[in-house]
Amino acid sequence: MKAWILEKQAKIEEKPLRLAEVLTPHAKDGEIRIKILVCGVCRTDIHIAEGDLPLRKSPLILGHEIVGIVDEVGKDVKNFKVGDKAGVSWLNGTCGKCKYCLSNRENYCPDIKSTGWDEDGGYAEYITISEDTALLLSASGLEPADIAPLLCPGIAGYAAFKLTDAQKGSRLGLYGFGPTAFCVLKVAKSMGIEVYVGTRSPKNMEDAINAGADWAADTSKKQMPCKLDSAIVFPPAGNLVEPALSQVENGGKVVLAPVSSSPIVIENYSENLWGRTIETLYNVKKSEADEFLEIADRLQIIPERGVFPFEELQDVLIAVRHGKAKVANSVIEISAG
Ligand SMILES: NC(=O)c1ccc[n+]([C@@H]2O[C@H](COP(=O)([O-])OP(=O)(O)OC[C@H]3O[C@@H](n4cnc5c(N)ncnc54)[C@H](OP(=O)(O)O)[C@@H]3O)[C@@H](O)[C@H]2O)c1
Ligand SMILES: [Zn+2]
Ligand SMILES: [Zn+2]
After folding, report:
1. Considering only CA atoms, which residue is closest to atom 24 of ligand 1?
2. Based on the number of CB atoms within 10 Å of its own CB, is 264 exposed (0-12), middle (13-18) or buried (19 or more)?
3. Cis peptide before 225, with omega less than 30 degrees from 0?
4. Are the C-beta atoms of 66 and 34 separated by less than 8 Å?
5. DSSP E strand boundaries for the chain
6. Domains of the chain and any CATH numbers
7. What is the DSSP-derived secondary structure letter of residue 134?
8. 3 Cα to the center of ligand 1, angstroms
9. What residue's CA is closest to ligand 1, atom 17?
10. Whole-model pTM?
11. What is the pLDDT of residues 6-30, one digit of tens each?
């Protein structure tokens, strides 16, 4: 099969990926094989390609926002059949035996495996995956290219949102308005939650209001109009944490979504942290992915996205790296079906 492979990490402008012919995988017992239609681009792909994250196998196929059609099922597969629409996200597998896996907290499994990092990902014609981890999408009315961006930002945003415990009538703050916050906003508004967005760029403010936000402004210049019950900080900017805490009422919570962050300093403990909780998002559970995809289908959550040819992957990665992507989410078309 054709696949983009990474053998040696380098700056993305040096084009470290190579389009190569590699062995087509076959579904082992308990696995399915997916003929990939599309794979969405994520900044994490760039972090792996450039060496911000270590290379865990070589050659490696990147990509973890995968949608395709099941074309082979291994022995004992129960929940998928050939022809089903299926997806693969960042979660590629867990040990199934540790205290976390046995208590429905597999997101903390020390042996968690990630798609397009520990295992080959989606910038290829086929992928194999355990049926326990694959996402069944046959019931979804959304287009594959609309589903792909939901598979990383969407799922992660939903998991962060669940950590806030936000309920109907409560006030939720979103700091940063990228693809992840967009999905959270859609879910929160459908539940009757008031949503206040802090974001710097006028385009993001406009997008937030158009997507249903009750208020959007640059919170470094303008304070939110009311106190919040909870908030989520999306960008890896530690300087946003104390302002978010100060906006939250006693008993409230600030959820931190980033996987890395600049230093977090709380200068005024008594005013801004005392009485509040900070919680971090650490990987996402399979059940949260299934739940969110069902909600996204029901609410018709369709992120802004552009579709690009398979051959142009490296140019797309360069554009995303430099903030020059034409759309919020870039999706690579691998097969027309
Ligand atoms: N924990 C997990 O398992 C997991 C999984 C997936 C994703 N994530 C995290 O989810 C987060 C959201 O990702 P995303 O791609 O949707 O958004 P993002 O690009 O990281 O940031 C969202 C927005 O925040 C604003 N922003 C960026 N840097 C900022 C800064 N230094 N100060 C203030 N605002 C800043 C930008 O809007 P303005 O320019 O308009 O301010 C940007 O559009 C990421 O941090 C990612 O690491 C976590
Ligand atoms: Zn991702
Ligand atoms: Zn485990």
Report:
1. 176
2. middle
3. no
4. yes
5. 2-6, 17-21, 31-40, 66-73, 85-88, 91-93, 113-114, 126-130, 135-136, 171-175, 194-198, 215-217, 228-233, 248-256, 277-280, 305-309, 329-333
6. 2-142+302-333 (3.90.180.10), 155-280 (3.40.50.720)
7. S
8. 29
9. 178
10. 0.95
11. 999 999 999 999 999 999 999 999 9
